[in-house]
Amino acid sequence: MMQRMKVGIIGTGGIALACAAWISQRHHDVSVWSPRGGGAEALRTTPLTSSGVLQASVKVHVVDSPGELARDADVLLIAVPVNWHKTVMDALIPHLRAGQLVIVSSMGSLSALYLYESALEHGIAIAVASFGTTVLTARRHDATHVKVMTRRTSLGVSCLPRSSQNAALATCEALFGSGFTMDENALATALTNINPVAHGPLALFNWTRIERGENWPQYHFMTPRVAAVIEQLDNERRAVANAFGLQVRTIEKHFAQSFNTESEQLADIAAELHHMRGGPPGPTDTQTRFLSEDVPYGLVFTLALSHVAQIPTPATEATAAMAGLITGEDFTAINNLVFPLRLPAESVSGLLARVNASR
To answer: Is 11 left (phi over 0), alpha (psi -120 to 50) or beta?
Structure first.
């Protein structure tokens, strides 16, 4: 059994707090840092409580800076939206030390590769593990209470460099328990995330509900035609993965592994989930991450890879364009990782060599 570890968590949203509670219950010491400032203040004096599949009350430590968090941590867990990844990573890098493990939950737009290569440029050889989605699903009720809704039964993890993957896998199991498998590489992990292909159409085709602030259960409104569009996006995601020699699971397989669904067709899976769970509710804020995060760091990233691999992705391109049209945002410009990762000038073989780095 792995010894007690000091774990530093970046973020104070639902996933970050759920991870803090879960890891603390497994007898590790947890510290949290809020990169936006102030998000963790209540936890200085009040225990973190969780409900749902984890009934717990734990004490977590609060730190004021990335330097303080990294200095004492054996493991760091980044649990902020992908549009904050580069900012948080840039803040962490000067304080990391050789051999330290950073887990990215969940990774998008190859942010794990950005962190790994940027640390090397600073002369720091770290290991970066990443998940394509979160281990837990959760909702934050307030600053000290989180509801943990699901612990996924199976989850892939990748690691840079590949030579550290066994140690990274063992650490993930020590923090969260069993159920982890090794993804082929970080690119495979990035392309396993089905949120962009599901969330983009869900938000666009239910946009008036979002604007009106209606209460709408997501899976009930994943109607057969909406599901058909999602399936087109999913086919393009997997075609891009295939162009890089990667096999990634279908969206239907994702739901089966995450929620034990039995139906085969996506529309039927949505109906099954609505019957089982009744929710979760769809977004009611026009700034929803379904578009603000999943389009630039999901669909736009897939488009960047499709250009590298010269694979047509018309449904993905149309969905990203419509998201920009309805929000008035240039989502291509919002992604702050595609150009730092030099993807527009990259080749298939060149990118594969980078994500398969052995040390």
So the answer is: left
Tokens of 256: 């089966």
**CA-CA distance, 49 to 232, in Å (whole number)?**
41
341-351 per-position pLDDT tens digit = 999 999 999 99
C-alpha to C-alpha distance for 203 and 287, rounded to whole angstroms: 11
Instruction: State how far the alpha carbon of 240 is from the alpha carbons of 230, 308, 348, in Å.
Output: 16, 9, 11
The whole-model pTM stands at 0.94
Lay out the sheet containing 136-142: strands in order across.
56-58, 48-52, 145-151, 136-142
Q: Which DSSP letter does residue 9 get?
A: E
The answer to whether residues 153 and 179 touch, using CB atoms and an 8 Å cutoff, is yes
Over range 52-67, report the average pLDDT: 97
Contact 296, 199 (CB under 8 A): no
Within 8 A by CB and 6+ apart from 185, the residues are 158, 162, 246, 352, 355, 356
Distance CA 183, CA 189 (A): 6
1 pLDDT higher than 70: no
Q: pLDDT (tens digit, 9 = 90+) per residue, 289-316?
A: 999 999 999 999 999 999 999 999 999 9
Q: Are 255 and 261 in contact (CB under 8 A)?
A: yes
Is residue 110 within 8 Å of 301, Cβ to Cβ?
Answer: yes
- H or E segment and range at residue 128: strand 127-131
Domains and CATH numbers, the chain: 6-191 (3.40.50.720), 194-355 (1.10.1040.10)
CA 328 to chain CA centroid, Å, is 25
Provide the mean pLDDT of the chain. 96
- φ and ψ of 159, to 5 deg: -150, 140
Cβ–Cβ < 8 Å for 12, 40: yes
Instruction: Let me know: does 144 contact 47? Beta carbons within 8 Å.
Output: yes
